[in-house]
């Protein structure tokens, strides 16, 4: 006699605690083992690209914060760079340095959130609060810089909104002195924990070829062992002036390209960001931070594509101008959307608990997927 | 109990010819209420306060600190709040089972208190099969949890319930096997008998009497954590995977029942291990006054139990959760064989040294202290490196 069995269809999200915002997955599960997980995106679609066509070049800047609210500096920078490319504007050097400083602080904050939630999704609550504690201090610094803690709206077309406040440089350096040992403490707290390594190693393995084929970017791509960083390979801003490494996955705990590799890449990138920050804070030149840009900014007709290395990887900003005060078309290409495309393939044969690990290790942010 | 009831009947308190069975039933009812409201629930509350405060400090948070001194009465406020809430029952659930499941869980949590040896005289019933009774009634939890998972008619709850059943049934085996080394040493199943076979000094405790019992105590602690659905084995209610596991659809008082049982079980786990391996209430005989001695024994017992509770909170604050296949392989590949070896080893040890080896306890104690010292040195190492003025203010 055979027992009739059938797959269980589980609906994970959009209000599930560990789907990082409003993601939805339809899981076909056989007990604890998944047959597949089908991502269902679009719950956070706010037509941001269409809004750009209605609010003009300057007015769109605050909206870019909402594309990826965890690392809003990069979306700011991407839009500003796209407009500068269209209008042929040269950013003052101090402005570029301010951008790099703000962006790298934001990268640390974003990676802290990512590795913290990674711990929380695995079931360890403590790393999350410790990561958030460090992130709070960065938020305080950024708040002093631009008045906001999440949606920064710091950058402008042609530079940044405000210069560094008096005494901010010393505070930032003091924070970095505090942060470097904390980074090791964090590693001791969770990264080398036996259970943690067991949960992450050999889960969600992405081969280098797959990562390229599926167009993964940023830490997800580098976790698979492919050294590709826009800051190094297609340099923008003043990044060529800084000395930093691009950490890649090594497969030290399991297979190359597993969740642990992506996690370790993020952990190491924080240290590299700290290195860049030290150099930038020590070398920052004097001068204006904002170029002269007409209030009624009308770039001549044309199109451009710029790429920035956001904390979730290569973020492409495509803008078409028809010579009016409003962009004719704007498109954002984000890393999380590409990562979501890979989840169906990766999820086959994993446990339900591993899906949570997988999402956290790909570091998808819901607003960045849908925009 | 029966004597008290009989004497009251003899005094004519219930009339000339009262129905004896009914009066016994009334006594049992009143007494159970006292046990539940007066002993079990407050202990669960205290454990919840300890857990929330300690856990919060480990996470550089404050934790509850408003109700009562240092937030001590927070559990009472939360309990009242939950009782005042609406009792929601999902439309598609199985209402009878859905309502009944929390009572089974709370039953499994209340029954063990009958044999809880607080001191040499403060014990409700010193059953001659005390420890067996304790393990068997705590295993009732699985029925309630499975029932809750099934009756909720929610797939996440169902997975939680099934996980819990698999987990508790599996870990029952190493837990049961690890109890028996202590039973072999004491030669009795009675809680008081096991405690009386040990002394107040650490080297007379069963945990250190030979290597096998030392391992058995650790195996028992690990399996008890798994049975109590505690981190790192909190899969049935894994909130990042299963929302809230079997308790997803529950709210108000019924939800409170599940969590009171979880925290109470933490105390029961501590009590079982304290009784079996850590000398229970044993305290040096410093007074002939029975009341003084009983109070001292009560304090000793509670300190030992709360220390074990603290360790489990510490573990919760440190470790991530294991996956279900890792959970099962830990149980069947490691803990079950180890506990079998322990059982046989203890029996052999007793056969070789029937009256106990005089050197082994000292070696085991030295080994234990060495482990503790190594561990504390590592803790202190990171303690010094962290910025205490920022993070360490325990009275906030």
List descriptors.
heterodimer, A: 371 residues, alpha+beta, Cytochrome-c3 Hydrogenase, chain B, three-stranded antiparallel sheet, globular, B: 396 residues, mainly alpha, 0% strand, disordered C terminus
Oligomer: heterodimer
End-to-end separation of chain A:
53 Å
Q: Which segments of chain B are poorly predicted (pLDDT under 50) over 5 or more consecutive residues?
A: 390-396
> What is the string of helix and strand elements of chain A?
EEEHHHHHEEHHHHHHEEEHHH
Radius of gyration of chain B: 22 Å
* CATH fold descriptor of chain A: Cytochrome-c3 Hydrogenase, chain B
Mean pLDDT reading of chain A: 86
Report the sheet-strand fraction of chain B. Answer: under 5%
**Backbone CA Rg of chain A:** 21 Å
Number of helices of chain B: 15
The low-pLDDT segments of chain A are none
Most extensive contact:
A-B, 33 and 34 residues
Which strand order do you get reading across the main beta sheet of chain A?
1-2-3
Helical stretch tally of chain A: 14
CATH-assigned homologous superfamily of chain A: Cytochrome-c3 Hydrogenase, chain B
Number of strand segments of chain A: 8
């Amino acid at each position: 006699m055979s027992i009739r069995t059938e797959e269980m269809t589980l609906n994970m999200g959009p209000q599930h605690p560990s789907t990082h915002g409003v993601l939805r997955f339809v899981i076909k599960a056989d007990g604890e083992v998944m047959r597949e997980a089908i991502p269902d995106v679009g719950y956070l679609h706010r037509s941001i690209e269409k809004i750009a066509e209605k609010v003009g070049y300057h007015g769109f800047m605050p909206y870019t914060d909402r594309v990826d609210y965890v690392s809003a500096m990069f979306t700011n920078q991407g839009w500003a760079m796209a407009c500068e490319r269209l209008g042929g504007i040269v950013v003052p050097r101090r402005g570029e340095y301010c951008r790099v400083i703000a962006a790298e602080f934001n990268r640390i904050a974003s990676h802290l959130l990512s590795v913290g939630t990674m711990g929380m999704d695995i079931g360890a609550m403590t790393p999350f609060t410790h990561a958030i504690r460090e992130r709070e201090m960065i938020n305080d610094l950024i708040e002093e810089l631009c008045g906001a803690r999440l949606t920064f709206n710091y950058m402008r077309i042609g530079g940044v909104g405000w210069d560094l406040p008096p005494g901010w440089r010393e505070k930032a350096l003091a924070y970095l002195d505090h942060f470097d040992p904390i980074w090791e403490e964090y590693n001791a707290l969770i990264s080398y924990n036996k259970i943690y390594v067991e949960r992450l190693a050999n889960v969600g393995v992405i081969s280098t070829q797959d990562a390229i084929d599926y167009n993964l970017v940023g830490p997800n791509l580098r976790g698979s062992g492919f050294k590709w960083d826009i800051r190094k390979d297609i340099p923008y801003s003043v990044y060529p002036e800084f000395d930093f490494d691009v950490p890649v996955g090594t497969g030290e705990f399991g297979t190359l390209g597993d969740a642990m590799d992506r996690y370790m890449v993020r952990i190491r990138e924080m240290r590299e960001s700290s290195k860049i920050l030290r150099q930038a804070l020590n070398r920052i030149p004097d001068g204006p931070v904002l170029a002269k840009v007409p209030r009624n900014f009308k770039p001549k007709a044309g199109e451009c594509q710029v790429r920035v290395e956001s904390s979730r990887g290569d973020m492409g900003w495509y803008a078409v101008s028809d010579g009016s005060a409003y962009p004719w078309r704007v498109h954002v290409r984000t890393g999380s959307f590409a990562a979501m495309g890979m989840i169906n393939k990766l999820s086959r044969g994993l446990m339900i608990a591993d899906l949570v690990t997988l999402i956290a290790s790909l570091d998808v942010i819901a607003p960045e997927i849908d925009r | 109990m029966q004597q008290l009831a009989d004497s009251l009947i003899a005094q004519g308190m219930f009339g000339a010819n009262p129905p004896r069975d009914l009066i016994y039933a009334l006594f049992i009812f009143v007494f159970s209420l006292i046990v539940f409201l007066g002993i079990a629930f407050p202990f669960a509350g205290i454990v919840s306060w300890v857990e929330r405060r300690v856990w919060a400090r480990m996470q550089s948070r404050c934790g509850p600190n408003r109700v009562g001194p240092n937030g001590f009465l927070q559990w009472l406020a939360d309990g009242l709040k939950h009782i005042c809430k609406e009792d929601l029952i999902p439309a598609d659930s199985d209402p009878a089972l859905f309502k009944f499941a929390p009572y089974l869980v709370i039953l499994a949590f209340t029954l063990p208190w009958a044999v809880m040896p607080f001191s040499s005289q403060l014990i409700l019933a010193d059953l001659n099969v005390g420890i067996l009774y304790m393990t068997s009634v705590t295993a009732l939890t699985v029925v309630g949890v499975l029932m809750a998972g099934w009756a909720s008619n929610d797939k996440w709850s169902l997975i939680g319930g099934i996980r819990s059943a698999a987990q508790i049934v599996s870990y029952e085996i190493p837990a049961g096997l690890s109890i028996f080394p202590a039973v072999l040493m004491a030669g009795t199943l009675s809680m008081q008998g096991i405690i009386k076979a040990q002394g107040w000094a650490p080297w007379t405790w069963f945990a250190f009497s030979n290597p096998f019992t030392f391992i058995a105590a650790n195996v028992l602690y690990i399996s008890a954590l798994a049975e109590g659905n505690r981190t790192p084995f909190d899969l049935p209610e894994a909130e990042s995977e299963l929302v809230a596991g079997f308790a997803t659809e529950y709210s108000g008082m019924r939800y409170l029942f599940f969590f009171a049982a979880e925290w109470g079980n933490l105390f029961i786990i501590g009590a079982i291990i304290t009784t079996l391996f850590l000398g229970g209430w044993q305290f040096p005989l410093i007074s002939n006054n029975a009341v003084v001695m009983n109070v001292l024994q009560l304090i000793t017992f509670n300190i030992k139990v709360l220390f074990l509770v603290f360790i489990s909170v510490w573990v919760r604050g440190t470790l991530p959760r294991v996956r279900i296949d890792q959970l099962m392989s830990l149980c069947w590949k490691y803990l079950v064989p180890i506990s079998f070896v322990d059982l046989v080893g203890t029996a052999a040890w007793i056969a070789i040294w029937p009256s106990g080896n005089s050197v082994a306890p000292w070696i085991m104690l030295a080994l234990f202290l060495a482990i503790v010292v190594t561990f504390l040195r590592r803790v202190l190492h990171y303690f010094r490196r962290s910025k205490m003025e920022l993070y360490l203010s325990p009275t906030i």
